[in-house]
Write a structure and sequence with these properties.
Elements: H1 6-12, E1 17-18, E2 20-25, E3 31-36, E4 40-43, E5 48-54, H2 60-65, E6 68-73, H3 79-86, E7 98-100, E8 106-108, E9 113-125, E10 128-140, E11 146-149, E12 152-155
Antiparallel strand pairs: 1-11, 2-3, 2-6, 4-5, 5-10, 6-9, 7-8, 9-10, 11-12
Length: 160
């Protein structure tokens, strides 16, 4: 299959990013997670973050219906989690893998950092929607991050 966007994807891939899982609660109450590398901070006061969701993602309807989302920043050694939630039909979350904080969105245990967020705005942009949210609770720990660069995983340096 010839991908006409491959050259552009390769150029975008030259920007190293961290790897996160975005989570929300489906309308039926079950937890949902997907792998995301478009996460970024927006503002300190108020504390705002964003990430971008593809319009044709299988999780699109759930995230559009949810008033909140979580972000779990993956640590070095958590590549298997990233790959699991990047698939179209990941193994569902087990109750011992996540916690629920204030918004009801699932937060992965053992994340390098985690953010529980209430959505304040959505912006359609091309073939994605930008989900902007206010951080209502967060945590972080020391450790090395999982990094994604040029379609490959790597581990970043240890940080306190």
């Amino acid at each position: 299959m010839n991908d006409p966007f491959r050259p552009l994807k390769n150029a975008f891939g030259r920007f190293a990013t961290g790897v996160t899982l975005a989570g929300c609660q489906r309308p039926d109450g079950s937890p949902l997670m997907i792998t995301v590398n478009s996460f970024t901070s927006v503002s300190l006061n108020p504390a705002l973050v964003l990430w971008c969701l593809e319009n044709k993602a299988s999780s699109y309807d759930a995230f559009m219906a949810s008033p909140s989302y979580s972000i779990s920043v993956l640590a070095a050694g958590q590549q298997a989690l990233s790959e699991r939630f990047a698939s179209h039909a990941p193994t569902p979350l087990g109750k011992n893998e996540y916690e629920v904080w204030e918004t009801g969105s699932p937060v992965m245990k053992n994340a390098l950092a985690a953010f529980d967020c209430r959505i304040v705005d959505r912006h359609k942009a091309g073939d994605h929607v930008i989900l902007i949210a206010e951080v209502v609770k967060f945590s972080s720990r020391s450790g090395a991050p999982l990094i994604y660069f040029a379609s490959r995983y790597a581990e970043g340096p240890e940080a306190e």
